[in-house]
Amino acid sequence: MAQLDAARAAHPEFAGQTAVVVSWYKNAVAPFTTTDVRGRLVTGIGLKGQPEIDKIAGGSFYTVLSPERIDLIDVDRISVIADRADQSALKNVELFANLPAVKNGKVSYLLDSEGPAIGAAISQGTLLSLPYAIDELVKSVGQG
């Protein structure tokens, strides 16, 4: 897709950095795999995914991490797709708050169903939502 190619070309600083997209699901961190649309967009803009999550997910598009496995999202950049209440809950998880990406301001918080629903646009991955999703993902990652 030309828009992903353009994003990679415009942001060479993304190359070599690891990233993961997560949600807050049933009081746990739920990262998406690199084969899910969310993970594919992250790698599409030039970041590297976290293949260990794919292994643990066992063919599913996401997995739920127990607190002792939060190390799997110890990456350079994290994108959180969640609404305000879930974002607040996640920010209060000490193991999450102590991740280097969190401490270094390399986390993008993207609203899901509350406006602007950037997270929903990324998650839906439709012809109509993808151009907006790519632009907003690049902006949010580039700000961190």
TrEMBL record:
Source superkingdom: Bacteria
Principal subcellular localization: other
Domain spans labelled Fe/B12 periplasmic-binding: 1-144
GO terms (BP aspect): iron coordination entity transport
Coiled-coil residue windows: none
InterPro entries, per the entry: ABC_transptr_periplasmic_BD (IPR002491), Bact_iron-sidero_bind (IPR051313)
Subcellular location: Cell envelope
SUPFAM superfamilies found in the cross-reference section: Helical backbone' metal receptor
Keyword Repeat assigned: no
Gene Ontology CC: one annotated term: outer membrane-bounded periplasmic space
Keywords noted in UniProt: Lipoprotein, Signal, Transport
Keyword Hydrolase: no
Similarity-based family: Belongs to the bacterial solute-binding protein 8 family.
Protein name, UniProt field: Iron-siderophore binding lipoprotein
Source species: Nonomuraea gerenzanensis
